[in-house]
Write a structure and sequence with these properties.
This protein is an alpha+beta fold. Helices cover 15% and strands 30% of the residues. The longest helix has 15 residues. The protein is globular.
């Protein structure tokens, strides 16, 4: 028992000697964006958990015939409500290693096995502010022509796996502004409750 008492005293001494306060110890809970893709309007098959839709270049009139639609809302943390969400849009050339299509799924068949867009999901200087939303949910419906007009994109130069991408900055009613979300929380293959981006890719199938 004497050895046990000395161990308890030693541990108590170690705990009482804490001299550093770490930033991660001061965390607060916040809401996160929630996106629901209208998968029925995707020109090619997709799944809700992928947070991706498709335009099919095989249709010569795809630019006006096909639509990309999603509804924006938020996951409420129960701590502070959302005042607004800024919606940003960009046009992007394909990555060096685009995600495979058709999408492959996890063993549970619920989530894609790879993320559908590059990380980090940071709003940069090339992003165009589309709108600041204050009433939720809000549904957006776009043709490729409309997205091209917003981003000043020449659709005659679009290639397979290029994509339009929406990103979000969230402001809480307590004044906190969330300008970036942790990468793992934005990874479509993880199933995390944070839809920090959503997009539509070009295919030719």
């Amino acid at each position: 028992m004497k050895g046990y008492s000395l161990l308890v005293l030693a541990l108590a001494g170690m705990l009482s000697c804490k001299t550093v306060d770490y930033d991660w110890e001061k965390y607060v809970t916040t809401a996160t964006p929630k996106v629901t893709v209208n998968t029925a309007k995707s020109a090619l098959p997709t799944i809700q958990t992928g947070k991706v839709s498709f335009f099919n270049l095989k249709d010569p009139n795809y630019a006006v015939n096909q639509q990309f639609e999603y509804t924006l809302d938020y996951y409420n943390s129960g701590v502070a409500d959302v005042a607004s969400i800024e919606v940003y849009l960009s046009y992007n050339k394909k990555e060096s290693s685009p995600p495979a299509y058709p999408m492959t799924f996890s063993l549970a068949g619920v989530y894609p096995t790879e993320r559908q867009f590059p990380l980090p999901s940071t709003v940069g200087s090339a992003e165009v502010l589309v709108e600041t939303v204050t009433s939720f949910p809000k549904t957006y419906t776009f043709t490729a022509t409309q997205l091209a007009q917003i981003t000043k994109t020449d659709l005659t130069k679009v290639a397979v796996n290029d994509y339009f991408l929406f990103k979000f900055i969230l402001t809480m009613k307590n004044g906190m502004r969330m300008v970036q979300f942790q990468d793992n929380a934005c990874d479509e293959s993880r199933g995390e409750p944070c839809d920090c981006r959503v997009g539509v890719r070009f295919k030719n199938q």
